[in-house]
Structure formats: C-alpha cells, structure tokens
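Homework help thread (please don't just give me the answer)

Our assignment gives two proteins as sequence + structure token strings and asks us to describe the second one. The first is just a warm-up. Here they are:
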Amino acid sequence: MPVREVDVAEISAAIAGACIKINYFLPDDMLAALGRARDTEESPAGRAALDVILENAEIAAQGEFPYCQDTGYTVVFLDIGQDVHLVGGDLMQAVDAGIRKGYKDGYLRMSIVADPLFGRENTGDNTPGMVHVRIVPGDGVRIQVDAKGGGSENKSRHKMLVPADGKQGVKDYVIETVQLMGPDACPPGIIGVGVGGNFEVSAELAKRALLRHPVGAANPDPAVAEFERELLDDVNALGLGPQSLGGRITALAVHVETFPTHIASLPVAVNTECHAHRTTVVEI
C-alpha cells in the first residue's frame, strides 16, 4: 500500500475544533442515556437533579456556552495508520497547538499547571495534552478527544490484586470505589474499569473504557459483557443516585476492558466520567 502523507496541521485543526465542540455539546448517546435515566429514576430528588442536568445541556448547546465550568484535562487518543507519513512538523507540538487554539477560541477555562509540586503555575493554555498514541493498520488517523473533569478524575483508584481475588475481588473493589466517590464525581456517569495488563496498562484501559461508543454498549466478549451488567446492577443498588441525592441511577453504564496479564497479577483500575461526558471522534 502506498504511503499517505498527512500534514500535522490537519490534526491540529481537528483537535482545536473538537475541543470547542465537546465543551459546548454533549454527545447524542450521552443525552439519550441521561434521558433514559430520567425516565427510570424513582427518586423525586434524583429526577429533579436529572432535569437540571438535561436543562443545562440544552442551555449550553443553544448558547454555545461550556457545559461545565471545569473544561478539563484534554485527553487525546491518536490511532495512526502504519501507512501514514506525518509531515509538516512535530506531532506533539501540533497536538498542543490544537488544544491551545481550541481553548482560546472557545473561551474555555485553562486548568493545567506546569509543575505539580512546586509553584503550580497555570500554563495559560490548557497544555500539554494527555496524549496516547497507537500505530494501527491502514492509512488513516483517528483522533478521539475527551475533556476530562478534575473532580471525577480525582476519584480514580488503582490496585494490584492477586489472582486468588478473582472476579469477586474486582467487583468488590469497583463497588468500594463508587461508594468512596459519593457526590464528588458528580453522578450519574460512566464507570470505566481496566483489568489486566500491568500497572500503567490497566489505567489506560479504564480511561479507554469510558470512551466506548455508544454509552452502555456491551463489551464484545459475552463473559465481560455479563460482568458489566452485574457491576451496573450492583452500583445502582447502592442507592446513591443522581448527585448522590438518593435514587436508582448512580451510573449510566459500566464499561470493562481487559488485557492479558502476568500469572501472578490481577491489576484493576477504576476511572469515572461524570455526567459531563465530553468526547468526540475525528477521522482524517
């Protein structure tokens, strides 16, 4: 297959547009999931919270205002075809240039500090982005951009279980994590669970799980899909409900991703996405 040239300026422009779009408009599948939650929630306080959430989404879209004041870390997943030749500059610089332009042109809050320990001075443009790159077959570039709020991200957890803990150990850890999240993760949202790999792979699996489309789509592995249904039922049986005001709908979906692991290991990571599920995909 002949090599296809892609100018990194195209990637930069796509990311800039995506940053603005996702902060103004919730994806249709998330709006549909919130609507279904509103129809099934039995708690009056929970229904009232969901009404406010849905009204907020409508106001944001009509006025092109940020859906949430926390416009997040910018997380960028790049799947780059092995038959693509990137030209025109440095890829990572192009990614950050797109974020910089999107957050400036969209009047979005800048939330990234340059040094996590000393000074914590804001970079002023929401860069650098949190970038994950995979080389895949083909001659295209797939870009998924997510604006990840700090409140929900702060409730992430990771643990190196042992094989003897098994499925029940993973389930117990997920449920414990959701209980600890309480209102701080702004439920209802999506629970992403990564199981397997190693320390860092399981965390990335959990983040990728959040971005599965559409919200609530089952894992293609029947056993994992059944585990997702069990986890969702158990999470919603906790009674936390929307904004932890009580009710049935604490999570709209639980997405689980797995990866092979060492015979002595059972890594598990839990990452949550609040109701501000701001993501989109652009393909070049």
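The one we have to describe:
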Amino acid sequence: MVSITRCCRRLRASLLLLLLSLCVGAPPGFAFGAADPSIDVRSAEIALGSDGYDLDAVFQIELGHTLEDALAKGVALNFVTEFEMVYERWYLLNLWNRTVSGFDQRFRLTYNALTRQYRVAAGALAQNVDTLQEALAVMGHVRGRFVAARDDLEAGTAYSAQIRMRLDTSQLPKPFQINAIGSRGWNLASDWYRWTVKP
C-alpha cells in the first residue's frame, strides 16, 4: 500500500514538473488549447473627418494552436487587410461598377524568443509588444484610415463598402505553404463584411 501511494505521489510530481516546464518555455501570451483559428469583423464604419472620409474597423483574431506554435518557433505570419468601396451601377447589371476607393494593408507578425516580445510591422513602421493578445489587437484595429476625399463622394448617393482580413499563405516558407493546402489550422480569413455608405 505504501509503494502505491509513493508511486502516485511521484507521478503527480512528474506531471506537475512537466506542466511547469511547458508553461515556462512558452512565449508570453501563448494560450494552450487555444480556440479554433478565426478572424471576425466586429465593426466597420466610414465617417467624415477633417481631410475627407476615414475608415475605422475592428477585427477579432484567434490564431489557433497550429499558428501560435509556428509563430513561437520563428515562422513569420503575414496578414493583409483588404478594403474596397464602389459605386454600384445596378442598372448595368453591376458589370461596370466604379471603384471609388480601395487598399491592401499588410502586416508581418513575428516572435523574438531572445527578447520574448512580439513584433508587428506594417511597411516601415513596427511596434514591439509583450503579449500575443496585444499584437493581435494592434493588427485588428484600423483607426482613421483615409479612404476618400470630400469631393470623391456625392451627397445622397449610396456606395457599397467591403472589408476583410486574411493570412497570406503565399508569404509562408515553402514547406508551410504545402501544409496550408486544405488545412483548417493554416487557412485563416474573415468573411467579407459589407455595408452601405451614404454621405
């Protein structure tokens, strides 16, 4: 009876040490058993600012275990936010719609194991943060992005706007691109979020 009790205590101690070593070795913000990968558009709107029309949008991003693990091992993840605003010519069956505004905003997310920090880069601008949640929040907030001059939109006319964010798998290293084909863990994109803008 004594040997069984000692064995159970050793097993519990071993499991506790294993769990502790995993937690210490994980990068900050790493969530074990993270939710399925997803990107959801929480809100998007265009408002008249001092220089013209500006876009504000909020995305909620969940990387999921596969992408978090790849990021922790040094794989850079490239995301792209796509926006388009068009004047729909329904009377021409929408075949000759006029694009009023559009852009692609690219982000590069990396993890530095030496400094234990995440880095979000957009073009020449970059920001270091301590947790993955902070990094995803930086990428997921579009604030005051200029999309059209005041004279570009006619008062009383309805325009159709749409926005989405996705992981750009074409920027992954070649072996990961192969893994991404048909893999739920690697195919991460929001649906198009559409709304009507009427100045």
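TA reply:
I won't write it for you, but here's a hint about the kind of observation we're looking for: Residues 1-26, 28-34 have pLDDT under 50 and may be disordered.
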